[in-house]
Design a protein that fits this description.
heterodimer; A: mainly beta; seven-stranded mixed beta sheet; four-stranded antiparallel beta sheet; 0% helix; B: mainly beta; six-stranded mixed beta sheet; five-stranded antiparallel beta sheet; 11 strands; 56% strand; globular
């Protein structure tokens, strides 16, 4: 399958600081990437859809100013957690859609996730 | 309408057993149904996927059974191994939809 790389794998930051998480599609160009948040023993919760060259589409209840998403190129999307607080501690996962000619919808591959701990 | 229900929440089997995980949906516009395997601290990995035009798909030890009329699909793991111990998520997506809807997950433990 296609490779999606997420960096860092884990990060610890102080409350009030900002943290940037990168999501890269290594062997394909992804016009659309997705950012999820996962709490322990729970399912993935979609935070936002990131489209290359345009503004991200956020799910209801997700603060746009807190979770800044930038998709500046076809292989890179970033999620910045601004002014992080302990309640932002979570597992953040990105995914990217693999383009497939002739199909309106294709498979998505996931990064390995980033464990954010805010102290 | 957008929900995908998944059961059981957790499952314990002996090595060699055949765990079965079931999912159900309501949205008839869903037309793509993948299963993901997730190990602790890792992102989900695509295991196998099916579209509604077939009733069964098999890849290695993993089989998806799909019942379109009942709006249900299930994952069977043949000859399960301790290395299969993980959380399994079913998902669904509309043909022209962008996003997946995930089930709540099933924690599988395969005892040696």
């Amino acid at each position: 399958g296609a490779v999606v790389s997420q960096h860092p794998s884990w990060v610890i930051c102080k409350s009030g600081t900002s943290v940037k998480i990168e999501c890269r599609s290594l062997d394909f160009q992804a016009t659309t990437m997705f950012w999820y948040r996962q709490f322990p023993k729970q399912s993935l919760m979609l935070m936002a859809t990131s489209n290359e060259g345009s503004k991200a589409t956020y799910e209801q209840g997700v603060e746009k100013d807190k979770f800044l998403i930038n998709h500046a190129s076809l292989t890179l999307s970033t999620l910045t957690v601004t002014s992080a607080h302990p309640e932002d501690s979570s597992f953040y996962i990105c995914s990217a859609k693999l383009p497939e000619a002739g199909r309106p919808n294709t498979e998505a591959f996931f990064g390995q996730g980033t464990r954010l701990t805010v102290v | 309408q957008q929900q995908v229900k998944q059961s059981p929440q957790s499952l314990i089997v002996q090595k060699g057993g055949i765990p079965i995980i079931n999912c159900a949906y309501e949205n008839t516009a869903f037309d793509y149904f993948p299963w993901y395997q997730q190990f602790p601290g890792k992102g989900p990995a695509l295991l196998i996927a099916i579209r509604p035009d077939v009733s069964e798909k098999k890849e290695g030890r993993f089989t998806i059974s799909f019942n379109k009329s009942a709006k249900q699909f299930s994952l069977h793991i043949m000859d399960s191994q301790p290395g299969d111990s993980a959380t399994y998520f079913c998902a669904a997506r509309e043909n022209y939809g962008q996003n997946f809807v995930f089930g709540p997950g099933t924690r599988l433990s395969v005892l040696p």
